[in-house]
Design brief:
By secondary structure, the chain is mostly helical. The protein has helices at about 1-20, 25-55, 65-90, 95-125, 125-155, 160-180, 185-215, 220-240.
């Protein structure tokens, strides 16, 4: 059942990527909406789940929040190292394609974990599985949208962007299929979600949103960002 439901996530991911690549003439609005989606996914979906699942606090701080900070710092470090490397080869301030591919690969990993969570939920019961299925399928539209946007934003060609989009779409099916063999411990899943949230927030705050306002500091871009957050809030509310 979980693998069948994951096919819906596959289609929604592709739909999100298709929308992202079709509205290139309104790139600033696309980036503004993508930034809002990423902010909403982190603050309203991933991080609350991570805090609940990651286990005991470490020195008085929830383990998920420590990993959240670690993910943020690692994303910053990786981007700076790649940027310095490219500058040393005379690339100046150009975008670093590897950053986009790394970010998209993280999205693929997240979608894989979505599939695992979906399979684990159906192992608990049909009701739990249905609730998780609704959340996964609806927010995979945002995953597809962000995967294509992140890959192309950093200068990767459309072929690579579509490849990463397809990998992101197939990942929930693969993840759901793995639960036929084993079950992921809840604390490990929570730790991953915390770490991934930090990396995703860095990309939204330091890259996506500044780029959205660089050439078009318009009110409509801000409204798209708010709309992205609102969309994730709606998805989370429906899932609950």
């Amino acid at each position: 059942m979980a693998v069948f439901v994951a096919l819906g996530a596959f289609l929604m991911t592709l739909a999100g990527g298709w929308v992202a690549q079709r509205v290139t003439d309104r790139r600033h609005l696309v980036l503004g909406f993508a930034g809002g989606l990423m902010l909403g996914v982190v603050g309203l979906d991933l991080l609350p789940e991570a805090i609940d699942a990651a286990g005991r606090p470490v020195a008085g701080v929830p383990a998920a929040l420590l990993l959240f900070v670690g993910g943020f710092l690692l994303a910053h470090l990786v981007e700076r190292l790649l940027a310095v490397r490219q500058a040393a080869h005379g690339a100046g301030e150009e975008r670093v394609p590897q950053v986009g591919l790394t970010a998209a690969a993280a999205m693929v990993g997240h979608s894989l974990m979505d599939g695992i969570a979906l399979g684990a939920a159906f192992q608990v019961g049909a009701g739990m599985g249905a609730a998780v299925a609704l959340a996964v399928i609806t927010h995979d539209f945002a995953d597809g949208f962000n995967t294509y946007t992140l890959t192309s934003l950093y200068g990767n060609n459309r072929r690579k962007a579509f490849f990463m989009l397809f990998a992101d779409a197939i990942a929930p099916i693969v993840g759901a299929a793995t639960t036929l063999v084993f079950t992921l411990p809840e604390e490990l899943l929570g730790a991953y979600l915390g770490f991934f949230s930090g990396a995703l927030l860095y990309l939204a705050a330091a890259e996506i949103l500044p780029e959205a306002h660089h050439d078009h500091p318009a009110r409509s871009t801000v409204l798209c960002t708010i709309g992205g957050v609102g969309f994730i809030w709606l998805v989370v509310g429906i899932a609950d």
